[in-house]
């Protein structure tokens, strides 16, 4: 039984079509990454899944709750962190923020839970510092702690890895992996794909549609190579499968190619070509 069920969902903003007839199911325990170019509809889809936006048509259920009709009940069971929006109290401390959100959700033992999260996210030493004085990395961790204060079964995260230094990013990703191992379903909108777990499911969006949906590992294992050379003064460039590389180089040298250069594709290059 899927934990998220999306059927034929569309959303427009005036003349802009943000989502076109989206169908998607997410199973409990999945680590889902939604990628795609700017304006492709990622945030709109995430907000619809959390009940923050109402679709123009179609049906969405999360944990069996209809996101339009039962959003209040749904909110008690999902965690949401949107890095592009201000959802922390900057004039309060980290601890005070967590206590407030714990109170909103009616969490028993909110203080204990808050301290455990602050400890786990290495924020315990700054728990009494005002959030306005936090670094970006600290704020992202606090945002994550806030989204977890009521022990949700599923986490919806938008761009929380953006603009982080490598250390903070690794810390957050490994925490997400730990949560996922403990059974929490993760749905993460992210441009950053390289440090994500290879058992993640990658969904790529373009122009309001899902154009690709496959295991991230299938892309990490994709070994295409770009070969550049100069033949008779003319530059050539071709993309070949890694397994054909020797053959291609041999062929190039046979026709007198010079300056042969080999560039291995990374995941971004592959996605850029797909997009
Ligand atoms: N509240 C809104 N009012 C008007 N247009 C909107 C609104 N929200 C989104 N859009 C438009 O809908 C389209 C999809 O936006 P969305 O934010 O979902 O894309 P995205 O893939 O998350 O982009 P980004 O990577 O830039 O965050 C864009 O053209 C955007 O300008």
Automatic annotation (TrEMBL):
Example of a GO MF term: ATP hydrolysis activity
Family: Belongs to the ABC transporter superfamily.
Coiled-coil intervals, chain numbering: none
Keyword terms, alphabetized: ATP-binding, Nucleotide-binding, Transport
The ABC transporter domain, residue ranges: 4-232
Protein name: ABC transporter ATP-binding protein
